Amino acid sequence: MARFFGICSVVSVVLFGVSVVYGLMGLTNHMLWGLVSAIFAASLHCLVFAIFTGSGKDTRLLVEDLSLNQEYVKRTKAFKREVFPPALYAIFFLLILTTLGGAASNASLRWLPWAHGIWAVFTIYYNIKTFLLEYKSIGINSAILRDLNENAG
Length: 153
Description:
The protein is mainly alpha-helical. The chain is 91% helix and 0% strand. The protein is elongated, with a radius of gyration of 19 Å.
């Protein structure tokens, strides 16, 4: 799962890059690429929610059923607490970015394109930082689940 997430994160960063280049060049497809990159990145963050929610529930049920060490449950919950807030903020920042982009393309206010550009830099940086945190956490969580499965079997 970590490899899949890592590849998708790289694709997401490339999509961000294409969107930025199109925006700086003033090409008409910038809005399309921006929406595609925002939806793809938000979907990745939602995938992380699903991974940790599902694995946490499965871990808890398996530990309870087989009377295993409760430490497994504590460790998976710790990842959820560590990863969920940044992922949620990343999605929120993407929503603000796309809203600013839509406003900049339809309004005559000269400051809106600048606000959109500055917010884009911040949002892309924050998403990359969050992708790295999520990738690391998914890898460690996968190792915990492998260990749990070995002890359960």
